[in-house]
Fold this protein.
Amino acid sequence: QPQLVESGGGLVQPGGSLRLSCAASGFAASGFRFDVYTVNWFRHAPGKEREAISCITGGSIVTNYGDSVEGRFIISRDNAENTVYLQLSSLKPGDTAVYYCAARFRRCSKYINEMDYWGEGTMITVSS
């Protein structure tokens, strides 16, 4: 049973940095290796709709969707470790949100209803 588990969230001061991890397991049950899936990071801030941040292909081609992050977040993946990362820097209070990863057995997409698998999210709180 394919699963995605996010980790690395927590409380951080404004201007600080964090690295989130999205660990994949059980994808053999889908009939395909994890490295053929594209993976998105999304975030859901209080009072706002869930928004796509960026997507990465199995070959590490990146598409950025979240103009609001102003180039401060970088997505990457290590297929040998079955893990996708999001490096966040220069964090602001407005970045406070639950961050999710999601996988898709198709090309990169920013639409929530086109994702095949979701993690349960990890919370980031940016506050002094």
User: Anything to note?
Assistant: The CA atoms of residues 56 and 62 lie 5 Å apart. The longest strand covers residues 18-25. The chain has a mean pLDDT of 96. The radius of gyration is 14 Å.
